[in-house]
Amino acid sequence: MPMQVKEAKMKRWALFLVMLLSVSLVLLPGVSAADEKMTGRIFQHSTKTEIIEVGDVPGHILGAGQHAGLITYSTGEIGTVMVTYYFDYVKGKGTFTNYLVATFRDGSTKVTKGSGTATPVDGGKRTAWEGTIECIGGTGKWEGIKGSGTFKGERIGDMKTGADSYVDFTLNCKKP
Known about the structure:
The chain is of the alpha+beta class. The chain is built from 1 helix and 8 strands. The chain is elongated.
């Protein structure tokens, strides 16, 4: 009888360990992915904007430009940003794409590509932005980073005269 009791206990422990391992394999990747989530805000100023009238319908413009500013993460990390963008708007509403290079104190860089929509607010004095972000590369600690996220923000002022803006973002980017 004592041998049967030992076998039963061993089977229970084996079952317990198999269950623990199975649950760990299912749950740990989710924990790991959650640890990669980054949130923050970008504060930027338009340093250059070029605009041309298309001429097909009133208010249709194409443009390109640059923003410079700061990026802050919820972790406390801060970097500088240079954003190059292009857009296609009709009466202030339309689509845009931007490429952002963030540079950090240690010299590492993170490169993202954003695409979204712009909608005029308050008679065009402000513009609301929203869209998606893709981590497309970097150097140093960000080398090989991949992933995606979302953003929302707002431009305050006329882009022809050097507007200021902010963007709130959430990213889930990690190294492969």
